[in-house]
Amino acid sequence: MVPPPIVTGISPNEGPPGTRIKIRGENFGNKPNDLIGLNICGFDCLLSAEWKSPNKIIAISGPIKGKGEVIVTTRAGGVGTCNVTFKGYHETIGPMKESAVWVEEAPLFSWGRHSLSPSSYQQEDPLGLSVEGNEKKFPEDDLMNYFPGKCGDIASENFSPGWFLLENHQATSFNDLQAGLLHLRRKVEAQKEGQLSFLKANIGSVMDQIDTLVILEEKFKKDFLLENQKE
Predict the structure, then answer these.
(1) Helix (H), strand (E), coil (C) string for the chain
(2) 180 and which of 74, 129, 185, 211 could share a cystine (Cβ 3.0–4.6 Å)?
């Protein structure tokens, strides 16, 4: 019987959303696809997880705040245990001012069959910033005059960053916007790392699908040529 995974050490043991965490322990599986779950402070971080060895995993922390355990789940060993805790916090600018308030988010980009669209896009704010306190809205007529043919919808082909910032963050400080940009970059990097790990773990299936597509393409071309010859 395969023993459950156990986390014995993490580095660093605290940080803001998007922190790259090295997770050490035992029984993390013998190959990447043995890893089927990673939970940091109650937040699912499997997408960003990169399996390195039976004793090491690298992951990116999510929008968490407060202390919590790092729980690894493997295909054979099941849900594991943890001897350490990770503390998530929000970066601050100055002694008293919180620079950014991260909110619960949907994935920045969809991976797989689902695409990014206005109906599926549920993220409150791409920068991860709270819009509380921005009660005074920028007039929409003025936005249309300043950015003709554009809009503030990030999922639209006509998206304008200037429109978006004036509409959602005209009262947000420059330091907060910088923190939000850093958060967004970390989210993008986390998504990239997660997708790379997915490809590495499923390289055999991906190659099989590519071979199947090549065969279908060749068959289509052959059938197309036969139809033209008949005509």
Answers:
(1) CCCCCEEEEEECCEECCCCEEEEEEECCCCCHHHEEEEEECCEECHHHCEEEECCEEEEECCCCCEEEEEEEEECCCEECEECCEEEECCCEECCCEECCCCCCCCCCCCCCCCCCCCCCCCCCCCCCCCCCCCCCCCCHHHHHHHCCCCECCCCCCCECHHHHHHHHHCCCCHHHHHHHHHHHHHHHHHHHHHHHHHHHHCHHHHHHHHHHHHHHHHHHHHHHHHHHHHC
(2) 129
pTM of the shown model: 0.43
